[in-house]
Design goal:
By secondary structure, the chain is mostly beta strands. The protein has 3 domains: 141 residues, Cellobiose dehydrogenase, cytochrome domain (Immunoglobulin-like); 143 residues, Copper type II, ascorbate-dependent monooxygenase, N-terminal domain (Jelly Rolls, Sandwich), CATH 2.60.120.310; 198 residues, Jelly Rolls (Sandwich). It is built from 3 helices and 37 strands. The chain has a 7-stranded mixed beta sheet with strand order 31-28-34-25-35-36-37, with no helix packed on it. A hairpin with a 2-residue loop joins β29 and β30. The longest helix is centred in the C-terminal third of the chain and has 24 residues. It is globular. The N and C termini lie close together (10 Å). It is found in: Membrane.
C-alpha cells in the first residue's frame, strides 16, 4: 500500500507539472541580473485565469508578488516552499515595509511545489481580476513584480535576496537580440564626475557613417556606475551643429540646440525594444548629422573619484520596418525666466504642461495622425503621480500614460498595450503630482535632482519634424501672492500657459494663451467574482480523487 501511495503522490506531482508546458506558459523573464530568479507565465482571457511558475536558485522559502512602487508598501504577495513536512503556500499582503500578513481571502491556488537540482519551483494560479481589495489588479499595463527568497524554510527578513522588475504580463513583448546583431556604441569616455549633487555631461559626436537608411530597434543601457547615473538622452542635432565636443552641458555651446530625442534611458529602466513594425531612423540623408549624448549624474553624497564611461548601445538593422518612429517631448518646459515653484509642506500639488497639436501646422504641414505606442514618464524626487490626458474638441477621450505610484528609482519606457491615435487639433496635458511634506523651502522647476520636472516622452509613428511641445504658466501675470497651497494651486491653474513648439532644425513657435483643462479621474479595474481559484481547486480535487479511487480499487 505504501508503494501505491508513493506512486499516487508522484502521479499528482506529474499532473500539477503538466500545467507548466510551453503552451500553457509561453512567456518568460529573468527577474534578476544574475539569472537566479526565473518566471514563466500564461493566461486564459476566456476563463479569466493567469498561471505562474517561479523558479529560484534556493531550497528555502520563495516569494513573489505585485507592488505599486516596487517595494513592500501595498504589495500583494505569495510565499511558499517545500519543507520537511511537505509543501507550504499562502496568499499574503503587506501595507508597509514589514512582515506580510496572511490574506483572509486566499485568491491564489498552488498547482505544484518541487525542488530539483538546488532550485525551488513553485507553480500557482489566480484569477486575473479578483474582488479582494488586498489583491493587486492585473491589467494590460506594465506591473512592478517583486521577489524575495531565503536559504531555509523559516520565512524571515530576506536581506539582499530580493528585487523588482517591471513587466507587462498581459501584453508581453520579449526582448531578443539576433546573434549577428549590429550596434552603435554611444558612450562618454572616462568622464571625471565632480563631487557635486547634480552634474550634466554632454558629448556631441557623429555616429558611424551609414550611407543608407537604417532602423534602430533596441536601446540597451551600458551603465558603469549605477549609483550615480540618473538618466541619459541622445539628441538629434539641427544641421547648423557641425562641431564635436565632450564637456559639461548648458555652458552656452552650439550643441545646446540639440533637442530632438532619439533614444532615452532613466534610472530603473532596462533594455527597450521597439514593436516589430517600427524603428528609429538613422543614416542615409542623416549620415552627416551630429548627435548629443547627455548624461545626468546624481551624486547627493558628493563622493569623489568616479571615472565614468556610461552610454547607450543602439541595435540597428538595414531591413527597414514599416514605420519611422519619432519621440515627442511633452510636459512642463524645464527652464524659463518665468518662475514656477512648488510650495513646501504640500501633500499633493499638481503641475500641468499642455500641448495643443493644432499649432504643429506652423512648423510642419500636413500633419498626419500620430500613433502613440510607448511612453517614458519623468519627474524628480518629489513626484508621486504622472498622468497624460488626451483631449479632443475640448473633452478628454483617453490617457496616453498613467503612473499613479511614480517611483523616482523605477523609470522605464513602457508599452501602452494598444495604439493611441493623436489627431491634428488634439490636446495633450501632462499632469504631475508632488509631495513636499518633508521640505521647508519651495522647489523650483529646473534641471537639478533637488529641483522638479514634469515630462512625458511619447513614442509614436510616423515620425514628423516636431521634437517638443511643452508649456509653462505665465507667472509674470500673477498679481497676488498667497501662503495657502490650495489657493496657490488654483491661481497657477488659471494662468495662461505659454506653449513652446520646436522642430528638428531648431525652429520654434510660441503660443501664449494655452488653457489647463481638468484631467478626469483614472479609471479603476472592475473586479469579477469569478472565484476561479476555488473552481480550479474543486475541479482538480475531483479529477485527482477519481484517479486515486480508480487506483485504489485496482489495488484492492
Amino acid at each position: 500500500m505504501s508503494a501505491l501511495l508513493s506512486f499516487v503522490s508522484i502521479l499528482l506531482a506529474w499532473m500539477a507539472g503538466a500545467w507548466a508546458t510551453d503552451d500553457n506558459l509561453p512567456f518568460m523573464e529573468y527577474l534578476d541580473e544574475g539569472g537566479l530568479v526565473y518566471l514563466k507565465w500564461g493566461f486564459d482571457n476566456v476563463q479569466g485565469n493567469i498561471t505562474f511558475q517561479l523558479t529560484v536558485n534556493t531550497t528555502g522559502w520563495v516569494g513573489f508578488g505585485f507592488s505599486p512602487h516596487g517595494g513592500m508598501d501595498d504589495a500583494d504577495i505569495v510565499m511558499g516552499g517545500l519543507g520537511s513536512d511537505g509543501s507550504y503556500f499562502a496568499d499574503y499582503y503587506s501595507l508597509e515595509e514589514e512582515m506580510p500578513e496572511k490574506d483572509e481571502e486566499q485568491s491564489y491556488t498552488l498547482l505544484s511545489m518541487t525542488e530539483n537540482d538546488g532550485k525551488t519551483i513553485m507553480t500557482f494560479q489566480r484569477p486575473i481580476e479578483t474582488c479582494d481589495e488586498k489583491d493587486f489588479h492585473i491589467t494590460a499595463q506594465p506591473i512592478k513584480l517583486i521577489y524575495a527568497y531565503g536559504t531555509t524554510d523559516v520565512i524571515r527578513y530576506h536581506g539582499k535576496f530580493r528585487g523588482t522588475k517591471e513587466v507587462n504580463l498581459l501584453n508581453y513583448k520579449p526582448k531578443t537580440i539576433p546573434p549577428d546583431a549590429r550596434y552603435l556604441s554611444v558612450k562618454v569616455d572616462k568622464v571625471t564626475v565632480p563631487p557635486k549633487t547634480t552634474y550634466y555631461h554632454c558629448k556631441v559626436m557623429k555616429l558611424q557613417n551609414l550611407p543608407t537608411k537604417h532602423h534602430i530597434y533596441q536601446i540597451v543601457p551600458e551603465i558603469e556606475h549605477q549609483e550615480i547615473v540618473h538618466h541619459m538622452l541622445l539628441y538629434h542635432c539641427p544641421s547648423f551643429v557641425n562641431e564635436t565636443y565632450d564637456k559639461p552641458c548648458y555652458m552656452g555651446d552650439i550643441g545646446d540646440a540639440c533637442f530632438g530625442v532619439v533614444a532615452s534611458w532613466a534610472i530603473g529602466g532596462r533594455a527597450y525594444e521597439l514593436p516589430e513594425n517600427t524603428g528609429i531612423p538613422i543614416g542615409g540623408t542623416q549620415s552627416d548629422t551630429h548627435y548629443r549624448l547627455e548624461i545626468h549624474y546624481n551624486n547627493p553624497q558628493k563622493k569623489e573619484g568616479f571615472i565614468d564611461s556610461s552610454g547607450l548601445r543602439l541595435y540597428y538593422t538595414d531591413k527597414l520596418r514599416q514605420h519611422d518612429v519619432g519621440i515627442l517631448t511633452t510636459g512642463v518646459f524645464p527652464v524659463s525666466h518665468m518662475k514656477y515653484d512648488i510650495p513646501p509642506k504640500a501633500a499633493e500639488f499638481r503641475s500641468h504642461g499642455i500641448c495643443n497639436t493644432s499649432l504643429f501646422s506652423q512648423l510642419v504641414d500636413p500633419i498626419p495622425d500620430l500613433q502613440v505606442f510607448s511612453v517614458l514618464l519623468h519627474t524628480h524626487l518629489a513626484g508621486r503621480k504622472v498622468r497624460v490626458g488626451h483631449f479632443r474638441k475640448g473633452k478628454q477621450i483617453d490617457f496616453l500614460g498613467v503612473n499613479e505610484n511614480y517611483n523616482f528609482d523605477m523609470q522605464e519606457t513602457v508599452n501602452l498595450g494598444n495604439i493611441k491615435t493623436i489627431k491634428p487639433d488634439d490636446e495633450i496635458i501632462v499632469e504631475c503630482v508632488y509631495n513636499t511634506l518633508d521640505r521647508t523651502q519651495s522647489t523650483m522647476m529646473g534641471l537639478s535632482t533637488s529641483d522638479e520636472m514634469c515630462l512625458a516622452f511619447l513614442f509614436y509613428y510616423p515620425a514628423i519634424n516636431i521634437t517638443s511641445c511643452t508649456s509653462r504658466p505665465n507667472t509674470t501675470l500673477l498679481s497676488i501672492t498667497t501662503n495657502q497651497i490650495a489657493e496657490y494651486q488654483s491661481l497657477m491653474n488659471a494662468l495662461p500657459q505659454v506653449q513652446y513648439i520646436s522642430d528638428t532644425n531648431y525652429n520654434s513657435s510660441v503660443y501664449r494663451y494655452g488653457t489647463v483643462r481638468n484631467v478626469m479621474d483614472t479609471p479603476t479595474a472592475a473586479c469579477k467574482k469569478t472565484n476561479a481559484a476555488s473552481r480550479l481547486c474543486t475541479s482538480w480535487m475531483v479529477k485527482a480523487g477519481g484517479i486515486i479511487l480508480l487506483l485504489l480499487s485496482i489495488a484492492i
